[in-house]
Design brief:
Helix content is about 45%, strand content about 10%. It has about 180 residues and is an alpha/beta fold. It has one domain: Creatinase/prolidase N-terminal domain (Creatine Amidinohydrolase, Chain A, domain 1).
Length: about 180
């Protein structure tokens, strides 16, 4: 449990059950792809799976979602309180400025015994140099690409998501009318 456990989920966009259902669907996709985990690095993927919203897109963040077991979020130390408030996660690892987040990621993968993770390589949130350092550090080169695992899952909206979209449309209508 992290030091901001009392903030857990207080600003979450959806109830814990919504994120648990999303994670269950993602776990099935990860396992079906032959991987034992997905390391998500894209903010939109991390948000969809956990509710995590970041203002610091320049800083490394990752979600380790094992096919079995609890997810672990890695964030910059300065974002720990926000990560706790946005999510229902009980495993958040924070790294201080100046520390190498690749080391934190490698430690999490090793401690969980995850030897066949897929990585979200598409997009610009995992620079090639960082991907190369991860590959060298965990001894997995090339890194398996799991970029295509989550987008198809995000296409089908849950009842909670449809309700949120309808509420947003009502707010937009009211704004336009005003």
């Amino acid at each position: 449990m992290h030091e901001f456990a009392d903030l857990r989920g207080c600003e979450a966009a959806f109830p814990a059950a919504e994120f648990e259902a999303r994670q269950a669907r993602a776990r099935a996709a990860v396992a079906a792809g032959g991987h034992d985990a997905l390391v998500a690095t894209g903010p939109e993927t991390i948000y969809w799976l956990t509710g995590r919203q970041s203002a610091g897109y320049f800083a490394f963040q990752a979600l380790v979602l094992p096919a079995e077991g609890r997810p672990v979020l890695i964030v910059r130390q300065l974002e720990l309180a926000g990560a706790a408030a946005n999510t229902w996660l009980d495993a958040i690892v924070a790294y201080p400025d100046g520390a190498d987040p690749v080391e934190a990621l490698a430690r999490i993968l090793a401690e969980a015994g995850l030897r066949r993770p897929a990585f979200e390589l598409a997009g610009w949130f995992l620079p090639p140099a960082t991907a190369a350092r991860i590959a060298a550090r965990i001894g997995l080169d090339p890194l398996p690409d799991g970029s295509g695992l989550i987008p198809p899952l995000r296409l089908v909206k849950s009842p909670a998501e449809r309700a949120a979209i309808r509420a947003a449309a009502r707010y937009a209508q009211a704004g336009l009318a005003a």
